[in-house]
């Protein structure tokens, strides 16, 4: 589970990605952020301008976080968020 907060067109949002949620929905929070995820499901997004690219699956935390970075101004990520930038990779890694 992780929480993301930021801005969509200047409007603050907060989203929680919780695959084990008892509420039935993996993503909970701001209606604007939820709609953005829903509308863009199946689209490709890059964690950085050069990739790696991921297809947004609303059930997959890595792709949700990647899409939020691409589509919004992410201010804070808390919790057990996936490492979409693969910061554990060696400095000379090729993607």
Distance between the termini: 27 Å
| DSSP strand count | 6
Mean pLDDT: 86
- Shape type: globular
Strand order of the largest sheet: 3-2-1-6
| Rg, Cα atoms, Å | 13 Å
Structural class: alpha+beta
Estimated helix fraction: 10-25%
Strand content: 25-35%
Largest sheet: 4 strands, antiparallel
Helices, by number, come to 2
Succession of helices and strands: EEEHEEHE
Q: Enumerate the spans where pLDDT stays under 50 for 5 or more consecutive residues.
A: 89-95
Structure notes:
This protein has 95 residues and is an alpha+beta fold. The chain contains 2 helices and 6 strands. A 4-stranded antiparallel β-sheet has the order 3-2-1-6, covered by helices on one side. The protein has a two-stranded antiparallel sheet with strand order 4-5. The C terminus is likely disordered.
């Amino acid at each position: 589970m992780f929480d993301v907060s930021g801005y969509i067109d200047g409007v603050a949002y907060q989203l929680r990605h919780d695959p084990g949620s008892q509420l039935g929905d993996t993503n909970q929070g701001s209606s604007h952020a939820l709609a953005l995820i829903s509308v863009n499901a199946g689209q490709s997004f890059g964690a950085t301008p050069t990739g790696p690219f991921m297809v947004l699956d609303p059930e997959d935390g890595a792709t949700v976080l990647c899409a939020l970075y691409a589509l919004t101004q992410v201010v804070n990520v808390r919790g057990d968020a996936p490492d979409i930038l693969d910061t554990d990779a060696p400095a000379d890694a090729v993607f």
